[in-house]
Structures are given as C-alpha cells and as structure tokens.
Design a protein that fits this description.
The protein has 421 residues and is α/β, with parallel strands linked by helices. Helices cover 29% and strands 23% of the residues. The longest helix is centred in the middle third of the chain and has 19 residues, at 239-257. The structure holds ligand LLP.
Length: 421
C-alpha cells in the first residue's frame, strides 16, 4: 500500500457522514488498508500485532481473521485479546505478554491461561519462575544500541529502561533454568520508527545472542518499529529487503540451534497508522500578529503525538459539503481547545509552533488529521474532563461505530462515593 497524496472522496464522505451522526471529534479507520498491510507481511512465520498502537477489539478481530497473532502489555490488553477471540495457551501462542515488569494480577492471569511471557528484566523472570515452574518465556534483549523516530521511542542502548541488558543474557538464562522456565525464544525491539541503518547490526546481535544462549530455541522475534510514511511523498519501507535480512539471520541461527526457528515480527504502527483519521470541527479562526491560528474541537487529549514527539500529521480542511477549502495558502497553525499552550497539532520537537501554508478555513468547516490510526485513540486521555471520542470503521462501504463516545456521566460515575478505605 502506498500512501495516497490526497484523501479519496469516499473517505471524505465517510468522515462527514460520521461527523454528522456522531459529532466531533471522532476517529475513522478503514479496514481494507489494514488487511493489505497484513498481507504485505505474510512472508514472516508469525506477525504479532503490538496492540498498543490501536487496541480496539474490532481491529483485533479483523487482524485475527488475517492470521495475525497479538502482543499484550497489560492485563487490560490481555482481556481485549480474549474479547476479540484470541485463544490463549495453545501451541500457536496466539497471545504473548511483553513487558519489563509484571504485577500480581497479570501474573496470576498469564499463569492461569498459559500465556508466554516475554521478560524484559531479571526480576520479571524470577517472578514468573516463582509463580509457575515450566512456564513458557521469551527473553527481550537490549542489544546495547537503539533507534527511534524520536529519542522517546528509542528502546535500546545504555539509556533505555527496556529489555535485559545484552551482557546479562547468560545470567538470565541461568536464572530461567534455576526456576525451570521453558525458553521459547529471543526478542529484540530497538525502537519505533526505525531507520534501517541498524538492520544488519540488530540481525548480527540476534545471531550473537542465539550463539551465546547455546540451547535449542523455538523462535526469534525481530520486534516491531517498522516505519510508515507520514508526509506526502515519503517512501514506504522495503519489506522484502527487511524480510531477507531477518530470514538470513533465522537460517544462520537454525544452523546454531540445530532445529527450525519461527521468525516473528511485532509491528504496531505499520499495520494501522495510515488507515486512520482524526476528524474535528473548526470552532475558531484567529488572527495573531500576521499569522492565523485555526482552533479545532480536538486537542492533545485526543492525538498526543505532536505534543509528545513533535510528530507530523498532514492536515486538510474541508467544507461541510466535503469540498476542499479553497484559497491562497497562508501561514496557519492548527491547535486544539485545551487550556495549555502546547495544545498545537502543528509543531516540531524542540522548535515548537509550526505555521504551515494552508488555505484559510471558516468556522464550521472540518479538519482531517491523517495517519492517526496508530497511537491516536490508544494514547487519548480525559484531560480537561473531555470524554473519549468515538471510533468508526469503514469496511466495504459500510460505516460501523466500533466504540461509542464516552459520556460525561460515565466519567463522573467513577467519582461517586467510593466509601472509606
Ligand atoms: N514491540 C514492543 C516491545 C514495543 O514496545 C513496541 C512499541 C512495538 C513492538 C511496536 O512498535 P511499532 O511497530 O508500532 O513502532 N507512541 C509512539 C510509539 C511508541 C511505541 C512503543 N512501543 C508513537 O506514537 O510514535
């Protein structure tokens, strides 16, 4: 799938139909591009979706129907996977739990259901071992370097809290043996939005780890991190080349372990980012000095990526008939309703407010923020006591509400008299 330069008219129609029916802000996803992405990864033995990117149970169900397995990082994500029909505890390992820590309630649930645990710390290994001898585990390794689209999405190297430090591999395996744990495989995830300069280095580190592990294994995982285009004209990554490098690593690793190894991939963003939009209504257009601010009814409590990472999302304005807003482009910053200066969708990490050349819309027009399918709804909050926005799925021309808008009553209900502690 290549990222279309402009929004297709039927997608704009779907956005406006949903906005009229449900109000704004709202999330709109398209099913077919998600399926296409899953097909593009079919060469891997197992594609394990990192559901933190978008954990709506309807999306999980769709991916399961494509043969995609799932990763969970919390008890809530385990329950979502179960709700979506994933079957735990079979040899297929449909669900794996990956984290750096595990709390007691989650530990009890993974043991009860036989869900393999991808351990990111020796303490986590000990806790799983104490809970159940023979439990299947993975080791998530920090190979000593990492990369991300932003320093906050780099999950490797000496400044990262993630994974078991590579020099601790042998000690961790000894610990696993001491507790009688069954080691399924080795895993590395060096960051999100990775530039592929590191690809061969990660593959070499994996091979080195397999050699040092010096034991039969069932699988290796390349982690996630595959980047997607966010800007017009940005290229897609070359999956064939990525697969070739990892497959070569797998074949070399099989020579070492002497048995077949399942090659897993753990993408989040790649499967869903380009398939989602955030739709908001324009509620004010202000002149500030010689430039304009366009204020939307969506803020960083909906889409947090710009304020956290300075991430770029293309924004287009359409009138309430669906026509693109016309006019001479002029410097415009697009911002939200929150009482906080950082609530600006057009910003650079460090540089802050970015004025983009866009045609000036009017109050009542709509703003469509693109490529918001990953780390959009899942990172939303109730800041400023704003309820979570609804989610809609477009599949074969049919629009379905896949999450209702949260109500203010639901929010306030949590604060009803909770009794004395
Ligand atoms: N596996 C592990 C262990 C992870 O921690 C992550 C993401 C993934 C896989 C999936 O990474 P992906 O393929 O989606 O890049 N909120 C940030 C991204 C943080 C990702 C955290 N971990 C963003 O909006 O860019």
């Amino acid at each position: 799938m290549t990222r279309p330069q402009s929004l297709r008219p039927e997608l704009i129609d779907a956005a406006l139909t949903s906005a009229r029916s449900l109000g704004t802000p709202l999330w709109l996803y398209e099913a077919e591009p998600i399926r296409q992405r899953a097909r593009q990864l079919a060469a891997f033995d197992c594609v394990r979706y990192a559901q933190k990117a978008n954990s709506n149970t309807h999306i999980l169900r769709l991916l399961r129907s494509m043969g995609v397995m799932v990763d969970a990082v919390s008890l809530g994500e385990i329950e979502r996977a179960l709700r979506a029909g994933y079957v735990p505890g079979t040899d297929a390992h449909e669900i794996v739990f990956t984290a750096d820590i595990i709390d007691e309630a989650t530990l009890a649930r993974v043991v009860e259901l036989g869900i393999p645990v991808n351990c990111g710390s020796p303490d986590m290994l000990r806790q799983v071992g104490r809970a159940r001898r023979g439990h299947p585990i993975w080791l998530r390794l920090n190979p000593g370097f990492g990369h991300g689209h932003n320093r906050k999405t780099n999950t490797g190297g000496p400044s990262s809290k993630h994974g078991i430090w590579h020099e601790e591999l042998e000690d961790s395996l000894r610990l696993a043996d001491e507790y009688g744990l069954s080691v399924v495989g080795l895993h590395m995830h060096i960051g999100s939005g990775v530039d592929y300069g590191h690809l061969h280095r990660v593959c070499d580190s994996m091979l080195d780890a397999v050699r040092r592990a010096n034991r039969p294994l069932h699988a290796i995982s390349a982690g996630g991190g595959l980047s997607v285009p966010y800007r017009a004209g940005e290229p897609e990554i070359d999956i064939a080349e990525y697969y070739a490098a990892w497959n070569k690593t797998r074949l070399a690793a099989e020579q070492i372990t002497g048995g077949p190894l399942r090659l897993e991939l753990e993408p989040g963003r790649y499967l869903v980012a380009n398939a989602g939009l955030l739709i908001a209504e324009i509620r004010a257009v202000k002149k500030v000095a010689d430039k304009h601010f366009v204020l939307l009814d969506a803020g960083f409590n909906e889409l947090a990526r710009p304020i956290i990472y300075g991430s770029h999302h293309e924004i287009c304005f359409v009138t309430n008939t669906g026509a693109p807003v016309a006019g001479e482009p002029r410097p415009i910053a697009v911002a939200g309703p929150l009482c906080e200066a950082g609530d600006v969708f057009t910003q650079h990490d460090g540089g802050f407010v970015e004025f983009r050349d866009l045609p000036l819309p009017q109050v009542g027009d709509f703003a469509i923020l693109r490529d918001a399918g990953a780390y959009g709804a899942t990172m939303s909050s109730n800041y400023n006591t704003r309820p979570l926005a609804p989610e809609v799925m477009l599949d074969e021309g049919v629009l379905s509400v896949i999450r209702k808008r949260q109500s203010i009553e639901q929010l306030l209900d949590l604060e009803a008299d909770g009794g004395v502690v």
